[in-house]
């Protein structure tokens, strides 16, 4: 059995929480018609659901497992072995943030952004080197590695 590490996404929950609070305050202070009230309720429910979603990435020597969790249950799980991956692309997002796109042979690519601990990017590049997967690093990404 190989080395195993689990990483979690660092989500920006403050904007969602602020939206939820502002909608609650607005509905208490302002007299709105039923259409506006229903829209506020729909947005509040969506914000509450999004606050409870977590993303997880597990890297072993043999495979990568990507999970989307809602509360305590897993709502989406994708497992990729080295033979399922075509290329791993390393890019820069924002001013000083790294992003890795895992491009599988079939299906949509996985974008790994703001996962903690920060070693997730090095672990994915090591996974690619161990399993002979092509790694493409942009010039901006190489600047961030220095």
Automatic annotation (TrEMBL):
Alphabetically sorted, this entry's keywords are: Membrane, Transmembrane, Transmembrane helix
TM spans (from-to): 39-57
Record protein name field: PH (Pleckstrin Homology) domain-containing protein
Protein species of origin: Falsibacillus pallidus
């Amino acid at each position: 059995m190989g080395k195993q590490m689990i990483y979690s996404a660092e989500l920006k929950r403050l904007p969602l929480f602020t939206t939820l609070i502002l909608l609650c305050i607005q509905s208490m202070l302002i007299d709105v018609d039923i259409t506006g009230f229903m829209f506020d309720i729909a947005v509040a429910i969506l914000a509450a659901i999004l606050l409870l979603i977590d993303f997880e990435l597990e890297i072993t020597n043999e495979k990568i497992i990507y999970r989307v969790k809602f509360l305590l249950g897993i709502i989406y799980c994708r497992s990729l072995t080295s033979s399922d991956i075509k290329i791993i692309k390393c890019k820069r997002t924002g001013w000083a943030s790294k992003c890795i796109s895992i491009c599988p042979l079939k299906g949509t690519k996985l974008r790994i952004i703001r996962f903690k601990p920060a070693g997730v990017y090095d672990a994915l590049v090591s996974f690619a080197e161990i399993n002979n997967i092509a790694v493409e690093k942009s010039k901006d990404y190489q600047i961030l590695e220095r």
